[in-house]
Write a structure and sequence with these properties.
Length: 501
């Protein structure tokens, strides 16, 4: 029996430790540990509710826009204006968030995951690396490495596009409660659109073909990394502003949940709970709805092995992310999604069940990038420069609200309680908390843990040096552990030093 510890897993956001126990060439047990603490909920207590849209963005510098969006939606809900956001406000929020989606997906494939499959030059930053299972020819590797470099420029264009309406990136100042801060102009619309069209060309002619090329070389990964088999999405990109129930709104990417039977069911946010049996939090807070729980760290807890909690829906394990969103749209009958998914599947003469895999997650991100980018080209032209972007409001003495949306990595919820016009309680349940969660109160492993368990190891003898199967599975989820807060002392004192090897 072999046990390997990868700590930290590199080429992801934040600090994640994976332990895998292998017996006779098969992973029998897997442990996913978030090793840094996030204290955002504690920081937000007793602050002005409007601070939340800025402070929660500091959860992550890669995907702060989804937190700004979730926070603004939670405040809209608590302030009683969820159904009063102007069309301009709704569309600009979509454009800011969509820009972040596209750059994040391109970042994930080219700069985080692709180097698991592409052998790049023997120069920094491409070395050191694992050696072994690379299947492309020297010429193909060189071409894909050039796409890696081109993707850096394309991501910059996406960030510039975001800043046109968001003001800056990271941590935009455009999305706020009540709408947005920046009015559309003809110049902004034009500058946004020409950058977007370049991104669309890259997605169509480089990104999607490269994902297909990787899938053809590594087709065995359609059978690896399946996971829990349950998928959940809140939906994202409002197509209309009506209705206080975000999960019932008409959205480009729809709300729903499904499993390997490909039957779509509704999501009821009241059925979401978080377990902490194996998390470093006080047991008094286990199995509670986010609105009812507190963040009470307990770092020396005997059964704990992660700073992540274990979100569950009706006590079941669910995977969130692009695969969940594309599956929900696909089985809900969205014609554009069906066409895009069908086009990818036809490349392999495969059925939809191959999507429950490492390669399925990569394909879903590429498909979603095209779906979002193509729709953004229409949305930006719907903006009306002479119309308002903001709705006035008053902070209530006492209220509560929830903002349910999606980040690039999956379902994102922010819950807020207001008392005496201050934040009494604030809870964030982020995508990687779902996907990288530890075992729950029923000892059910989280989605990443389940995806690793049962994996066949190609070369057990060199598994310590080249754990390709494990890191490819983990990175297919695009985990973001940056939800852990890094604390500094502004006086320049050293709090602690940690060495990662």
């Amino acid at each position: 029996m072999i046990k390997i510890t990868i700590d930290p897993v590199t080429r992801i956001e934040g600090h994640l430790k994976i332990e895998a126990t292998v017996d006779n060439g098969t992973v029998k047990e897997a442990i996913s540990s978030g090793t840094l603490f996030r204290g955002i909920e504690i920081i937000l207590k007793n602050r002005d509710p409007n601070d939340a849209t800025q402070i929660t963005q500091r959860i992550c510098g890669v995907c702060p826009i989804c937190h700004a969006t979730a926070s603004a939606l939670a405040l809209d809900s608590a302030f009683g204006i969820a159904d009063k956001i102007t069309d301009n406000g709704r569309i600009i929020r979509n454009l800011i968030l969509g820009s972040n989606f596209i750059q994040s997906h391109i970042l994930h494939f080219y700069h985080l995951a692709a180097l698991d499959f592409v052998k790049s030059p023997d120069i920094p930053p491409f070395i050191p690396r694992y050696e072994g299972d690379y299947r492309f020819s020297e010429k193909e590797n060189a071409e894909l490495t050039q796409h890696y470099i081109k993707a850096l420029e394309i991501r910059r264009k996406a960030q510039e596009m975001l800043a046109i309406f968001g003001g800056k990136m990271p941590h935009n100042v455009g999305i706020i409660a009540g709408g947005v801060t920046i009015k559309p102009t003809t110049d902004k619309i034009t500058n946004f659109l020409w950058r977007l069209n370049e991104l669309r060309e890259f997605i169509d002619n480089v990104y999607i073909p490269d994902v297909i090329a990787v899938a053809k070389k590594y087709s065995d990964y359609f059978q690896i990394g399946r996971g829990c088999g349950n998928y959940l999405a809140y939906g994202v990109f409002d197509l209309e502003g009506n209705g206080k129930d975000y999960l019932a709104r008409k959205r480009l990417l729809r709300s729903g949940r499904t499993s390997t039977d490909l039957i779509c069911k509704a999501v009821d946010s009241s059925k979401i709970t978080e377990d902490v049996q194996h998390s470093w939090y006080d047991d008094s807070q286990t199995h509670k709805h986010p609105l009812d729980e507190e963040t009470i760290p307990k770092k020396d807890k005997k059964n704990g092995y992660s700073w992540l909690k274990s979100p569950r829906y009706e006590e079941n394990v669910y995977e969130v992310g692009p695969l969940a969103r594309i599956l929900v749209n696909y089985i809900s009958g969205d014609e554009t999604t069906k066409k895009l998914v069908g086009g990818v599947l036809s490349e392999f003469n495969a059925k939809p069940d191959v999507l429950f895999s490492v390669l399925g997650r990569h394909a879903a991100r590429a498909i979603e990038s095209k779906l979002v980018a193509d729709n953004m080209a229409n949305w930006v032209l719907e903006l009306k420069p002479d119309e308002p972007v903001f709705t006035e409001y008053q902070i209530p003495e006492e209220s509560e609200g929830a903002g349910l949306t999606e980040g690039p990595r999956g379902a994102l919820g922010h819950w807020i309680k207001i008392k005496n016009k201050k934040i009494e309680n604030y809870q964030c349940v982020v995508p990687t908390t779902w996907n990288a969660s530890p075992k729950d109160d029923k000892e059910q492993p989280g989605p990443i843990e389940q995806a690793i368990i049962g994996t066949k190891i190609r070369d057990e003898a060199s598994f310590f040096k080249n754990p390709f199967e494990i890191v490819r599975i983990v990175r297919s989820f695009d985990p973001c552990l940056a939800c852990a807060v890094h604390l500094i002392d502004l006086r320049g004192n050293t709090i602690g030093k940690f060495r990662a090897t």
